[in-house]
Each structure stands twice: as C-alpha cells, then as structure tokens.
UniProtKB/TrEMBL annotation:
GO terms for molecular function: protein-transporting ATPase activity. This is Protein translocase subunit SecD. Residues 129-140, 189-207 have a biased composition (Pro residues). Residues 67-121 form the Protein translocase subunit SecDF P1 domain. It is a multi-pass membrane protein. It comes from Amycolatopsis vancoresmycina DSM 44592. Residues 386-560 form the Protein export membrane protein SecD/SecF C-terminal domain. Residues 141-170, 178-188, 215-226 have a biased composition (Low complexity). Keywords: Cell membrane, Membrane, Protein transport, Translocation, Transmembrane, Transmembrane helix, Transport. The gene is secD.
C-alpha cells in the first residue's frame, strides 16, 4: 500500500475487489447445480448420526492403532459409495458417523465388520431347523467345454452345490473365434444369504461404552468357539470327526434372522462350522487359507450373458499366487467365501484360476451386488463393531437451528451497525458497507467450497462466522482510532489518512495473524464441530484482510480527498472533537514556540 492518499489510487483497489466478487459469483451461478446455496451439515438440514461400538473377543480394550485403521477404512467406504458431507470421527473407543440429508440408511451399513476369508469346504448339511428351499432337478444337457454336471447337495458328505445357485466363472484362452472358449469354468456354489451383508453381531446384552464386550457375551463367544472351532473337528487325514461335527452343527441355528455370537470373533487359524445358502445349509470349513485383505479390487455389474448381477474380484500379487495354488490343487472341491462367519458363496472349482480374476454370481439385486462389492473393496475392519446408537435429526429441527443462528448473526450485525453509526457517523456507514461486502464474499466462498471440497456449514461454523464479525469490525476500529490519533496531533483529515493507515495496518496484520494462527491450530488438533468452527473463523479472518485492504482503506481515502464539503467535514465523520483538540494542541504548541523565541 502506498503511504499517501495521492499514490493510493483507490479506484484500482475497488475495481480489483469488484472483479474478485464478479468472478466468484460467476462461478456460483454458472457452475455446479447453479443454486447459490451452501451445503448444510446434519444439525442444519437433518440427517443421521450412527455410533459404532468396538468389540474385542477377549473383552479387552481395542488398541488406538486398530481404531484409527477402522476409522480410515470406514472413511474409504464413505467416499466409495458417494455419501457427501459425511464425517467419520473417533469418540473414545467409538466410531461416530454423521450423514446429512436422507442417506442415513447407507451409514448404518458402513460399520459392517466385513472380515472376509477364504476357506475350503470339508462338508455341508441341510439345516434341520429351517426347511430348505426346494431344490431344482439336476442340470441336464452337456455343459460347455466339458464342464461336469451339477446336482443337488446331499444332506452330508461331499460338498456340491444346488442347481441354479450363484456361480463363479473363469474363462480360459485358446478358443477359436466365434466358438466356445477352450476352457470354461462353470461352477455352481451355494447361494448367498438373503442379504449380502451379514446380520448384526450377537450382543445379548448392550456392549459397554468403552468398547469391550460384557462378561455374558464373552462367555457365549468362548462357548461357541469351543464347539464350532474345535481343532479336532477335522482330523490329521483331512476327514471330519463325525461326532464333533454333528454336535457343532446341532449347536448352530441358521434361521433367517439368527444372530451369531462368533460374527467378527472367529479364529481364522481354526476350523469353522458356519451357515450359508439362505441360512438353509451348514458348512464345515477348514482354517482360512486366504484373507480378504488380499483382495485388490471388487466391482459389481450386470452380466448380459447370464442375465444377472455379479461381483467381480481381483487379488493382489500374493493373493493371486495363493488362489492359483489352491484352485490348482483342489479341482472339484468347494472354496467358501466367508464373510463374518457367513458363507456368502461356495463355488466348486472346475479349473485352476491362475490370474486371480474371480466372479461371484447369484440371485443378487443391483443394490445387494453393490453392497457386497463395496464391503469387499474397501477392506476388512480390524475390529468387530456393534451399532450402539443411531440418531435421526429431523430436518425441521435443523431449519429451526439455522433460523436461530441467522437471528443471532443478525442481532450481532445490528449492534455493530448502531455502535458504528453512533460513534463514527459517516465512517460508520463505510464500516457497514465493508461488512456487507465481506458477507457477500464469505457467502460465495462457502457455496463454492461446498461444491469443490464438500464443505458443509453447521451451527459451529455459523458461530465462527458470527465471531468473525467482531474481528472484522475490530480492524475498522483500529484504523479509525489511528486516524483520531493523527488528527489529535494536529494533522488534517486528509493528511491523517495515509499516516494512520501505515500505523494501523501493522496492528491489523498482527491481530489477524494471531486469530488465524489460533484458528489453524484449533482446526488441526480438534475434531467434529469444533473443527468446523475453526475453519470458518480462519477463513473469515483471511477475507477480513481482503476487505480492509481493498475496500475500507480505499473508501476512506476517497472520502478524505473528496471536494464535497459534507463528506470531508470531520464533524460528519465523528472526528470533530478530536480535530478541535488537535487544533488546541497545535495552537498551544505555536504559542509555546513563540514564547521560547521571545525569551
């Protein structure tokens, strides 16, 4: 900034500010959805807040590392399904998910444990409690590429899958153009459960808020593990212990809505008796040979050839090797995809799958295929979670909160306006104009941030904006008081403006720097609503400097050089008293110098 009003050329600064405002509002109205409204948080537009309580099998405290890892995975899931404005935060040993708007149902599924593992099927049996679905007759005709026929599974014995169940296909190369592939793996696993996501974990009693399971639940987990994960279920020769297997299967209820105490708490190093196939089959499974963390990608899509929705899996390099080795050595055997102790699919391996690309097919709806794909894609959580609380905030309550915040901000502005008009008069009018332009700038930035980075304005953010009104007004007060100091020393209003600005801007910069630093530190160390407060406070502090430099000072300079007697009259600017005092001091100083000269 120039030191004198003559070199200031305030018109250029005002033109620059006008250009900034024009560009911002052009972006507001000509990009995105063209609606000049900022995105609102859950406390303003309503939504859902879900609290997930971490559980550990031994009842101990979950580690901070595992909680942070779980939060990051859930956050990736949020980004993957495109739920905008969602926050995932840690609150002690709980993970809190907040979803604005009407997307709360998706948030309730984000905490699914999704402990996916691949196990070899040793045996399966129909569920004696729930009548199994009618099994279609065996497939007829000659399958392509010499694939063996499939038949209905027996009540026990060798693991085969029901006809018409989900399939996993792997095509090999070598076929002539227009002909069937040289190698076509057509497998028929047991169908997935009625929902691709497993039921909530068994919690007979509410889990404590510290994240550990209660004593009764821990006992039930250990009891279920002792029977259904007994190391002796499978002998050294790989054959099932018929007595122990029968006991384990009898202890397991596979009703449609049955809760499994082992969900998320099973030991991958031990055998497992689990439910699958719409909860009408029970499976005896070997220890896990491939963890779900080896999945590189998972997508869902519609298979035109089969006329059904499918989920496609690809593995990481190590997972591809393990999967290729298993499918090579276990041709004709079943591999169960176990999701939180639920067998989602159990394909019969027809040929070796060397490249790791695998397809899960079945009676999926589009949403079920997408849900399963998302859960597999965005990782297995290191902890098991129970949804201990799901609160829905009404949009009506959010509107009332927004109105209350706007009323509070309006009252704050009104008080500032009255004070400025009473104390600074015409300078107060410049203050009001500067605040109005500052508000227009802030509003445009909020709208654009909502579109570009998904920033959502909540009540805490509105509180930050209201406090920023005081910070902006404080900059004006500093400047005007510096003008008074200069006039009090006997200078005219015109000569006081550049000198007062040079002294005032140092103080304004120092003050705003402290405010911005405090907001930045608060933003880094805080979470949730406090972080939103810090963001709007810091943003408004930066915009305060823009307004003071490009609007307030140029306007004051224009008034000081105006030939209009009304505008440049110090009395109309609230400077009459200090000008009179300055004149008296100047006169007294002149008399003093005259007396000294005479002496």
């Amino acid at each position: 900034m120039a030191a004198s009003a003559g070199h200031l050329r305030p018109g250029r600064y005002l033109a620059l500010f006008a250009l900034i405002v024009i560009v911002l509002y052009a972006l507001v109205f000509l990009t995105g959805n063209h609606k000049p409204t900022p995105k609102l948080g859950i406390d303003l537009q309503g939504g859902t807040r879900v609290t997930l309580t971490a559980r550990t099998p031994d009842g101990g405290q979950p580690t901070r590392e595992s909680l942070n890892q779980a939060r990051q995975i859930i956050e990736r899931r949020v980004n993957g399904i495109g739920v905008s404005g969602t926050e995932v935060l840690l609150d002690g040993n709980n993970v809190v998910i907040t979803v604005p708007g009407e997307q709360g149902d998706q948030a309730k599924n984000l905490g699914k444990t999704a402990k996916l593992g691949f196990r070899k099927v040793v045996a399966n049996a129909t569920q004696p409690v729930v009548p199994p679905q009618t099994t279609p007759p065996p497939a007829t005709g000659t399958p392509t590429s010499g694939a063996p026929k499939t038949s209905a599974p027996p009540s026990s014995g060798a693991p085969t899958a029901s006809s018409g169940a989900p399939t996993s296909t792997k095509s090999g190369g070598g076929g002539a153009p227009g002909a069937a592939p040289a190698q076509q793996q057509t497998t028929t696993p047991a169908p997935p459960s009625s929902s691709t996501t497993p039921p909530p974990a068994s919690t007979p009693a509410p889990a404590p808020s510290d994240g550990s399971v209660d004593a009764q639940t821990a006992q039930q987990i250990q009891a279920a593990k002792a029977v259904r994960q007994d190391p002796k279920l499978i002998g050294a020769d790989g054959q099932p212990n018929q007595e122990l297997v029968a006991k384990a299967m009898a202890s397991l209820t596979c009703a449609p809505n049955a809760k499994d105490a082992l969900e998320g708490n099973d030991d991958p190093k031990l055998p497992l008796v689990a439910c699958g196939d719409h909860n009408t089959y029970k499976y005896l499974l070997e220890p896990e040979f491939l963890p779900g963390t080896e999945i590189a990608d998972s997508t869902s899509g519609y298979d035109q050839q089969r006329g059904q929705w499918v989920v496609n899996l690809s593995f990481k390099s190590e997972g591809t090797k393990i999967w290729a080795d298993f499918t090579s050595k276990n041709t004709g055997q079943q591999a169960a995809f176990v999701l939180d102790t639920q067998v989602v699919s159990a394909p019969n391996i027809q040929v070796a799958i060397l490249d790791g690309n695998t397809q899960i097919t079945g009676k999926f709806t589009q949403s079920e295929a997408k849900d399963l794909s998302d859960i597999l894609k965005y990782g297995s959580l290191p902890l098991s979670f129970a949804s201990s609380d799901a609160t829905t905030v009404s949009a009506t309550l959010g509107l009332a909160s927004l109105q209350a915040g706007l009323i509070a901000g309006g009252i704050g502005l009104l008080v500032v306006f009255i004070y400025c008009l009473f104390y600074y008069r015409l300078l107060g009018v410049l203050t009001i104009l500067s605040l109005a332009l500052s508000g227009a700038l802030v509003f445009a930035v909020l709208v654009l941030l909502g579109r570009w980075i998904g920033y959502t304005l909540d009540l805490a953010g509105i509180a930050g904006l209201i406090i920023a009104i005081g910070i902006t007004a404080d900059s004006f007060v500093i400047y005007f008081e510096r003008l008074k100091d200069e006039i009090r020393e006997g200078r005219t209003f015109r000569s006081a403006v550049p000198r007062g600005w040079v002294r005032a801007r140092r103080t304004i910069l120092a003050s705003d720097a402290v405010s911005f630093l405090a907001a930045a530190i608060l933003y880094v160390i805080a979470v949730g609503d406090v972080q939103g407060f810090a963001f709007t406070l810091g943003m408004s502090t930066v915009l305060d400097l823009v307004v003071v430099y490009l609007v307030t000072h140029p306007l004051v300079a224009m008034v000081s050089t105006s030939k209009n007697a009304f505008l440049s009259n110090p009395r109309h600017l609230g400077l009459g008293a200090v000008q009179q005092l300055g004149s008296q001091r100047k006169k007294a100083a002149s008399v003093g110098r005259a007396n000294v000269k005479e002496a």
